[in-house]
Design brief:
heterodimer; A: 167 residues; alpha/beta; Beta Polymerase, domain 2; 4-stranded mixed beta sheet; two-stranded parallel ribbon; 3 helices; 6 strands; 19% helix; elongated; B: 399 residues; alpha+beta; Cytochrome-c3 Hydrogenase, chain B; 3-stranded antiparallel beta sheet; 18 helices
C-alpha cells in the first residue's frame, strides 16, 4: 500500500476489495458501484490530484483467483509528482459500470473499445458502439474464453453465387 | 443586373472522407455533415486496420511480441520496440547495461526524426507543398539505410530483445550516423525556409484546430500535440527511462495550440533530437549491450553456442518452451515518449511464458478523440490541416 491507496481505503472503506494476488505498485482494487466517486476523489482531492487519465482498459481475470471476473483498469497520473495510480474496478461479465466520459472526454473512445473487446456496458455513455470490430460482429474477442482462431467475420460474408442462367 | 437571392440554407450534405483517400494517411474514414463549406458534424470511423495485436500477445512469448510492435506505428518502429522491451524489463525487474541503453536512446531519437519528417512532410503535402515532402523523404531514406544496416530491416526492425538488443551496432555505424547528423540540420533549415513564413501555409494553419490547456487534460493528449498547447510534459524529462536523464535537451512548448504550433514543436524537437544523438555518439560507453546471459533471459553469444556444449544447452534452455526464467505474477505499466506521444504498455503476467494481458496505450488513438471537437463548426478545408497536424497513424490507431 502506498500513501495514495491508503487514502482511498480510508475514504471509501466499504468499496475496497481484495484483488487478485499479484505484485504491483500503487494499485488498488475497488467495487464498481461507486467508481465515479472514487475517480472524482482521485482527480480533485488536493492531496491526490491524479487529474490525467493515462489509460482506460480492462482485464479478464478468468484464470485468476479474483473477486469478480472483469476488472476495468484506470491508469491515472499526477502531473506534478509524476506518479501513476492504477484503480481496478471489479465487476462480473453481465454487470454495468458508470461511464467516466463526463470526467475525462478521452474515456469515451476508450470505453467504446472496452465494450467492443470485452463486452462491458457503460451506463450513461453517449455513444456506446463498437469501435474496432465491425458493427455486426458477434462476441467480444479479448475475453479469455474467446478463442484466438476458429471463429470470425468470414462466416458472415455473403456468398456470391454466379447466376448460371445468364451465361 | 438583377441578382436573384435564393435561400440555400437548410440543406446539408453528407460527405464520406476515406477510407481510401490520399490525405488520410492510412485507412480511416470520416463521415462529415456539411453546410456549404462549414462542417457541422464529423463522425470518425476507425478499425479498418484492426489486427488484434493485444489478443495475439496473449499467445506469444515476450520476445516474439517484439516483432508485432513493429507494425504498430510504422513510421517509427524502433520506438515501439523500445517501449515494449522496457515494459517487459520492468516486469522481469532487470535493467540493461549502459551501452544498450544509450544505443536505444540513439535509435529512439533517430526514429523520432524520421517520424517527424513524415509528419511535417505529409501535412504540408496535403496543404499543397510538395517540396517539403520530398526533402523530408530524401533524409528519411538515408536514415532508413542506417536502420537497415544496424537492424537488418528498414521497417520491420525488431531490434530490441527483453534484456538488451538483437545485436550491438556495426563497427562503423557511429561514424556513419555522425556524418548523417552533421548534414541533416540543413534540411530542417530548408523545410523551415519553405514553410514557416509561407503565406499559404500560415493561412491554413494559424488558429486552426486550437486546443486549450484544459482540453489537453480532458482528452488525455500527449506528445507534440499536448506540448503545442503549452503543457510542459515530456516523459523523457518527467519520468526518465533508458538513461534519458544523462542527456541535455530542451522540451519545446507552444503557446497557441493551433496546427502551426504543432508544426513548430515538431521542427524544434528534431533539432533537439539531433543534439541528443550527438551526445550519445560522444559518450557511447564500451561494454556489453545485453544483460548477463547467466540470468537465462537473454541468449548467449553465438560463438559460445556454436563451439561449446554448455552454450548450446544454454541456448536451448532459453528458447525451448517450459524452460528459462519466467516472469513474476505481476502487473506493470510503462510509458515512453514515442514521436506521437505517450506510448504505454500495461502488462499483466500470470507467471507463464506468455503474458496474460498486454494493453497498448496508443497515442494516435487517444489524440484522435479530440478530432470531433476540433472539426465542429470548422471549415471543410481544415480537415486535412487538423488531421495532418495530429499525425494519426492508422496502424497504431487500430492495432
Amino acid at each position: 500500500m502506498s500513501e495514495f491507496t491508503e487514502k482511498i481505503a480510508a475514504k471509501f472503506p466499504d468499496e475496497i476489495l481484495e484483488g487478485p494476488e499479484m505484485e504491483s505498485e500503487n494499485a488498488i482494487s475497488v467495487k464498481s458501484d461507486k467508481i465515479l466517486a472514487v475517480l472524482e476523489y482521485c482527480r480533485s482531492d488536493a492531496g491526490m490530484k491524479f487529474e490525467f487519465l493515462t489509460d482506460l482498459t480492462a482485464v479478464d481475470f478468468l484464470e485468476f483467483d479474483s473477486p469478480k471476473r472483469i476488472a476495468v483498469i484506470y491508469i491515472l497520473r499526477n502531473m506534478e509528482n509524476m506518479q501513476n495510480l492504477i484503480v481496478r474496478a471489479f465487476l462480473s461479465d453481465d454487470e454495468e459500470i458508470d461511464t467516466a466520459s463526463e470526467i475525462w472526454h478521452s474515456a469515451e473512445w476508450l470505453e467504446r473499445e472496452v465494450w467492443d473487446l470485452f463486452g462491458i456496458k457503460f451506463k450513461g455513455h453517449p455513444n456506446l458502439k463498437r469501435i474496432l470490430m465491425p458493427d455486426d460482429y458477434e462476441g467480444h474477442p479479448l475475453r479469455k474464453d474467446y478463442p484466438l482462431k476458429g471463429r470470425g467475420e468470414r462466416d458472415s460474408f455473403k456468398i456470391i453465387q454466379r447466376d448460371r442462367e445468364r451465361y | 443586373m438583377v441578382r436573384v437571392e435564393k435561400d440555400l440554407q437548410g440543406e446539408t450534405l453528407e460527405l464520406s472522407f476515406g477510407p481510401q483517400h490520399p490525405a488520410t494517411h492510412g485507412t480511416l474514414q470520416i463521415v462529415m455533415e456539411l453546410d456549404g463549406e462549414v462542417v457541422l458534424n464529423v463522425e470518425p470511423h476507425i478499425g479498418f486496420l484492426h489486427t488484434g495485436f493485444e489478443k495475439l500477445a496473449e499467445h506469444m512469448s515476450y520476445n516474439q511480441f517484439v516483432t508485432v510492435t513493429d507494425r504498430m506505428n510504422y513510421l517509427s518502429p524502433l520506438s515501439n520496440n523500445i517501449g515494449f522491451s522496457l515494459a517487459a524489463e520492468k516486469l522481469f525487474r532487470i535493467e540493461i547495461p549502459k551501452r544498450g541503453q544509450y544505443i536505444r536512446v540513439l535509435m529512439a531519437e533517430l526514429s523520432r526524426i524520421g517520424d517527424h519528417l513524415v509528419a511535417v512532410g505529409t501535412a504540408a503535402m496535403d496543404l499543397g507543398a510538395m517540396t517539403v515532402f520530398l526533402y523530408g523523404f530524401r533524409e528519411r531514406e538515408k536514415l532508413y539505410d542506417l536502420f537497415e544496416w544496424a537492424t537488418g530491416a528498414r521497417l520491420t526492425t525488431s531490434y530490441t530483445r527483453v534484456g538488451g538488443l538483437m545485436a550491438d551496432l556495426p563497427d562503423d555505424f557511429p561514424d556513419a550516423v555522425t556524418k548523417w547528423v552533421e548534414q541533416f540540420p540543413k534540411t530542417i533549415d530548408e523545410i523551415e525556409k519553405l514553410l514557416s513564413h509561407n503565406r499559404i501555409f500560415q493561412d491554413r494553419t494559424y488558429d486552426i484546430g486550437v486546443i486549450s490547456k484544459e482540453d489537453v487534460l480532458k482528452y488525455s493528449l500527449t506528445g507534440p500535440v499536448a506540448r503545442a498547447s503549452g503543457i510542459n510534459y515530456d516523459l523523457r524529462k518527467d519520468m526518465p527511462y533508458s538513461s534519458y536523464e544523462d542527456f541535455e535537451f530542451e522540451v519545446p512548448i507552444g503557446e497557441n495550440g493551433d496546427a502551426y504550433d504543432r508544426y513548430l514543436v515538431r521542427m524544434e524537437e528534431m533539432r533537439q533530437s539531433v543534439g541528443i544523438v550527438k551526445q550519445v555518439l560522444a559518450n557511447l560507453p564500451d561494454g556489453e549491450v545485453n544483460i548477463d546471459p547467466d540470468s537465462k533471459i537473454t541468449l548467449p553469444g553465438k560463438d559460445e553456442v556454436y563451439t561449446t556444449i554448455e552454450g548450446l544447452i544454454h541456448h536451448f534452455e532459453v528458447t525451448m518452451e517450459n524452460k528459462g526464467i519466467l516472469p513474476p505474477v505481476a502487473e506493470v505499466y510503462m510509458g515512453t515518449e514515442s514521436p506521437n506521444g505517450e506510448l504505454g504498455f500495461y502488462i499483466v503476467s500470470n507467471g507463464e511464458r506468455e503474458p496474460y494481458r498486454v494493453r497498448i496505450r496508443p497515442p494516435s488513438f487517444i489524440n484522435y478523440t479530440i478530432f470531433k471537437k476540433l472539426m465542429k463548426g470548422a471549415m471543410f478545408s481544415d480537415v486535412v490541416s487538423n488531421l495532418g497536424s495530429l499525425n494519426i497513424i492508422a496502424g497504431e490507431l487500430d492495432r
